[in-house]
């Protein structure tokens, strides 16, 4: 679906899966019993950052080798089979081989330093043993994976040592060929080129490990534009914010849809939504603008206000009784409240009438269904970066099943049983039925894409906003005061007698302090990326230079560079709640670099034609969430000195980053 996936797509290639432990990397080649097996008994698993472990179970030996090349994040508990991922295996082999060589040299050097001939011999002998183990460890899964051929008997032969070396040499030869013939060469007029050392992956692993640091380093080396080879693609990064405008102006040479279409189909599993391919004639971008902005936004805000209060108060009533503190993870809380309310707002409610006698039991069933959908959403979302990087979903069994279940819940026949569907979903159902040739499941999957787009960034953005507020008493005071004053001006009384607070769009628009707080929280946590694909060879004219770009290359912006630029934002890593307010307390729009006013200084929602169509709704939802929290609850961190969690980089390029760990907080109802 056009752009339902972000056009802020990172290519964290090698970033096979996100997860809770940012350090843990796990890659394996599975046999039928769930562990990597081979008749030689080799097993390969558990890669930690910068570390590769190769374990030979039959001999009981284990060698652990350092490598700086394998730095991707793979946190999946179930180790998938990469039988068809030749490129990955190829890289893996090289990494292991490099690692073993490095270890060999280190050991030899150590021994030499001691100047003891005997030790040298012993060290070399032991290192040779290690290399043998490594090489065998490499070759076994490689053969298993690439050929899927039962070569067990071969490995049982004493010649296995020799065979491992033959494999190693073959790999090295391939690398040499690739190095000589397969690498792209920079041509005249093209930006400086970074090919990276790995065939196919290029700089992907380094980029995926920490895009911001990687890009800063390359910017220092090459200047404001350079090309990186990342997972088979050539990406021209523009790092000078004064050039962003030039990129937007040259839209006729650049395509922003193709990439979205392909990625959406890949990640969500529907057929191509590119009208050129004939499955549908829907203009998705128009549908989104029409149903998420303008008059449609008022209805969304109204529904969200009601649903947030239902989820925060009614559905949590058992927890909130007796005025005692409830302790929870802040991310878990934001996730549940925003997902449940957002789901109800877009996809309506299951039950029909408020007078229904069994209303409360129906509400409970409905709630269970939505929480179940949330679990499926989380399971699927975990591997989203891997899908964007191009891995097939079949490698991730539980995520695949989660996506299918989400699809089933959003089948048209099920949606038709729900009340208060949003205009967005109603129109999309109509257009699916009239303009597309999709089957029922494919139609449902286009709704899964909408669900993902509406939640995946909003949840972490809500978390960061509330977290920074809890850490900054000054910001909390200013925000609470602003909300109170808007509610008082409109004589809105806060009570628990079932009458809900209502804040309409106009009231919410009149909250510049909350606006500034949300912007600042997103500036600190957003790592979106804007992509455009070259439709043909053309010359990219920037402010003072021009560069030749080849057809199918990607031109990309990485706004986090801008958001963390100390020239634009003084003390960029510090949360300043009033950073986006001017002296009059209104929205600040003048930001400077090198004394020049910037047009582009804040871009968590992307920019240009493909800018997020849901951005207004997103900011309103977060404001509503905060206004209700301030109105109904007392809230504090369990440990007021808790450190700010780090950003989980596995999602870099895809939007707002999640925290790498949850933070405990407590809340209780105010005595109203
Ligand atoms: C804090 C929350 C959000 C952030 C940071 C965010 C960010 C983004 C970004 C960066 C893009 C890609 C823009 C580009 O290509 O330049 C995007 C696209 C999109 N977003 Fe959001 N978004 C958020 C919330 C929402 C919500 C709440 C909705 C819907 C209810 C939504 C719906 C969409 C859709 C449908 C697209 C694809 C648009 C297209 O390509 O036609 N987003 N979003």
Automatic annotation (TrEMBL):
Q: Which residues bind heme?
A: 612
Keywords on record: Cholesterol metabolism, Coiled coil, Endoplasmic reticulum, Heme, Iron, Lipid metabolism, Membrane, Metal-binding, Microsome, Monooxygenase, Oxidoreductase, Steroid metabolism, Sterol metabolism, Transmembrane, Transmembrane helix
Q: Please name the Gene3D superfamilies in this protein's record.
A: Cytochrome P450
Q: Does the keyword Transport apply?
A: no
Looking at its record, which EC class is this enzyme? oxidoreductase
Keyword presence, Endoplasmic reticulum? yes
Enumerate the subcellular locations listed in this protein's record, separating them with semicolons.
Endoplasmic reticulum membrane; Microsome membrane
Main location as per UniProt: endoplasmic reticulum
Transmembrane segment boundaries:
86-105, 138-156, 162-181
* One GO cellular component term: endoplasmic reticulum membrane
Q: Binding of substrate: at which residues?
A: 266, 457
Swiss-Prot/TrEMBL GO biological process terms = bile acid biosynthetic process; cellular response to glucose stimulus; cholesterol catabolic process; cholesterol homeostasis; regulation of bile acid biosynthetic process
What are the required cofactors? heme
Could you tell me the superkingdom of the organism this chain comes from?
Eukaryota
Matches recorded under SUPFAM superfamilies: Cytochrome P450 (SSF48264)
- Alphabetical list of InterPro entries matching this protein: Cholesterol_7a_monooxygenase (IPR030681), CYP450_sterol_14alpha_dmase (IPR050529), Cyt_P450 (IPR001128), Cyt_P450_CYP7A1-type (IPR024204), Cyt_P450_E_grp-IV (IPR002403), Cyt_P450_sf (IPR036396)
Reported EC number(s) for this entry are 1.14.14.23
Molecular functions per Gene Ontology: cholesterol 7-alpha-monooxygenase activity; heme binding; iron ion binding
Q: What is this protein called?
A: cholesterol 7alpha-monooxygenase
Q: Which organism is it from?
A: Lonchura striata (white-rumped munia)
Which gene is transcribed and translated to give this protein? CYP7A1
């Amino acid at each position: 679906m056009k752009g339902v996936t972000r056009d802020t797509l990172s290519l964290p290639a090698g970033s096979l899966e996100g997860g809770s432990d940012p350090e843990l990397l796990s890659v394996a080649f599975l046999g039928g019993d769930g562990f990597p097996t081979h008749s030689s008994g080799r097993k390969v698993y558990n890669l930690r950052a910068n570390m590769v472990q190769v374990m030979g179970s039959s001999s009981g030996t284990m060698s652990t080798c350092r490598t700086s090349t394998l730095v991707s994040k793979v946190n999946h508990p179930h180790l998938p089979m990469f039988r068809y991922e030749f490129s990955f295996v190829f890289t893996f082999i090289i990494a292991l081989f490099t690692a073993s060589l490095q270890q060999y040299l280190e050991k030899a050097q150590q021994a030499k330093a001691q100047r003891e001939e005997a030790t040298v011999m012993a060290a070399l002998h032991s290192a040779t043993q290690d290399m043998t183990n490594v090489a065998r460890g490499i070759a076994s899964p490689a053969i298993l994976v690439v050929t899927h051929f039962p070569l067990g008997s071969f490995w049982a032969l004493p010649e296995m040592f020799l065979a491992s070396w033959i494999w190693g040499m073959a790999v090295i030869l391939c690398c040499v060929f690739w190095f000589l013939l397969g690498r792209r060469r920079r041509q005249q007029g093209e930006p400086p080129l970074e090919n990276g050392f790995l065939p196919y992956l290029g700089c992907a692993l380094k980029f995926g490990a920490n895009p911001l640091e990687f890009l800063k380093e390359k910017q220092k080396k090459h200047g404001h534009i350079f090309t990186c080879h990342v997972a088979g693609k050539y990406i021209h990064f523009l790092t000078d914010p004064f050039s962003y405008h030039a990129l937007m102006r040259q839209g006729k040479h650049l395509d922003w849809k193709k990439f979205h279409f392909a990625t959406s189909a890949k990640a969500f599993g529907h057929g191509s939504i590119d009208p050129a391919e004939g499955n549908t004639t829907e203009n998705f971008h128009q549908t989104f603008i029409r149903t998420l902005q303008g008059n449609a936004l008022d209805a969304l805000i109204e529904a969200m206000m009601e649903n947030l209060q239902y989820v925060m108060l009614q559905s949590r009533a058992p927890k909130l009784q007796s005025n005692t503190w409830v302790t929870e993870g802040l991310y878990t809380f934001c996730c549940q409240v925003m997902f449940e309310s957002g789901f109800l707002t877009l996809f309506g409610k299951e039950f029909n009438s408020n007078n229904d006698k069994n209303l409360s039991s129906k509400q409970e069933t409905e709630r269970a269904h939505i929480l179940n959908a949330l679990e499926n959403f989380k399971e699927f979302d975990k591997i989203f970066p891997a899908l964007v990087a191009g891995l097939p979903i079949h490698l991730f069994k539980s995520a695949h099943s989660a996506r299918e279940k989400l699809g089933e819940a959003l089948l048209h026949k099920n949606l038709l049983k729900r009340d208060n569907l949003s205009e967005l979903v109603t129109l999309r159902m109509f257009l699916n039925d009239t303009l597309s040739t999709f089957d029922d499941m494919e139609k449902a999957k286009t709704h899964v894409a909408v669900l993902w787009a509406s939640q995946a960034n909003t949840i972490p953005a809500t978390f960061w906003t509330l977290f920074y507020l809890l850490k900054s008493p000054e910001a909390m005071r200013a925000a609470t005061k602003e909300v109170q004053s808007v509610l008082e001006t409109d004589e809105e009384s806060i009570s628990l007698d079932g009458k809900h607070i209502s804040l309409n769009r106009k009231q919410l628009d009149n909250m510049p302090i909350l606006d500034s707080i949300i912007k600042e929280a997103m500036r600190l946590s957003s790592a979106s990326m804007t992509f455009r694909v070259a439709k043909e060879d053309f010359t990219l004219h920037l402010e003072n230079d021009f560069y030749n770009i080849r057809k199918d290359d990607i031109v990309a912006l990485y706004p986090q560079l801008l958001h963390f630029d100390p020239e634009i934002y003084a003390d960029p890593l510090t949360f300043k709640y009033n950073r986006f307010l001017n002296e009059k307390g209104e929205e600040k729009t003048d930001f400077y670099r090198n004394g020049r006013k910037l047009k582009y200084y804040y871009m968590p929602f992307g920019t240009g034609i493909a800018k997020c169509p849901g951005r207004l709704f997103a900011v309103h939802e977060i404001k509503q969430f905060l206004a209700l929290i301030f109105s109904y609850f007392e809230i504090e961190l369990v440990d007021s000195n808790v450190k700010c969690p780090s950003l989980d980089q596995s999602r870099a390029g895809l939007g707002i980053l999640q925290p790498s760990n949850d933070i405990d907080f407590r809340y209780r109802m105010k005595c109203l």
